[in-house]
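Here is this case:
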Amino acid sequence: MITAVIPTFRGQRRLDRNLASVVETLGRCGGWEIIVVDDGGGELGPQPRCVRVVELSRNAGYGPAVNAGVAAARGELVLILNDDVRLEPELARGLRESLRDGVFAVVPRIRSRLAACGDEGGKRGELVRGLIEIREVDREVPGATLYPVGCCFLCRRQDYLELGGYDPLYAPFFWEDVDLGYRAWRRGLAVLHVPGVTCWHEASATIEEVASEPDRQRIFFRNQVLFHLRNLQDSSLRWGCLGALAAVELLDSNEPRRRGLSEALRLFGEVGFRETGGLSDREILARAR
C-alpha cells in the first residue's frame, strides 16, 4: 500500500489543481491512501472522500508537517509530495518498481522553472570555497543523486522512521531534504534519480507566499550552515567549512546571510554535532555523483 503525504499551508487552490493527478497515479498501483497535512493554516475546503486530513494546531513548517503525515500513514510505502506538484499517470508505479533493496528513496524527473537543465530531480554536492553547493544533474537514465528532493519522492515508511524523518531544526524550509538524503547515504542507503517518470512542479509556490526574499536568503544560508556543522565528519572538510564561515563573518556585506550565520551558530550550540560512523563524507559525495 502507498500513502501519499501532502503538507499544505493555505493551499486549497494548489490542491484543487493537482490532487486529481495524485489520485490517478495511485489508482494504478493497487492499495493506496492520501493524507493531507494542514500545517496550521486552516482555510481548507471539503476534501474528496479518498483524502484523510491531519490537522496541526500551529504552523510547524514543511519537515514537521511531513513527519506528522508519515506517522499517521498506513502504507508501507510513502509518496512525499508538495501541494504544487502534478504527477503523470505512471509516476507511482514507475517509482515503486525502482525502489529496490539498499535504496532509501527514488526521485522522478521534476520539471520546474527553477531547474536550469529542466529537471530538479538529479542532484550532486560540489565543494566550492569550503562549502557544499548543490548542483543539478541532467541525465536520461537512472543514477545516484545526493538527496530526495522534497517535492516528490517515494520511500519505505520504515526507513523514513528509522532515519528519524526530517530534522525539525531546519523548519520552516530549505535543506531538510539534503540532510535526510545525506543521513541515508551515511548509513549506506542509496538515493536514486529515475528520469523515466515525471512530475511537474510549480516551484516554491508556498515559500514565495509566506517569506520575503531577504527571509528566504537568511533561512537558506542558516540551514546550509547547520547542515555542514552537524554532518561533516572529515576534519579537512570541517576546517574548510569553518574558514568559509569566517570569511562570511568578516567580509560578506549581505545582511540576510550574516543573520543566517548568527542563527545557525546559536542553534548548533544548542544541538551539537550529529553521530559519527558510516560512510565518510568523501565517499558520500563520490557515490552520489
Notes: The radius of gyration is 18 Å.
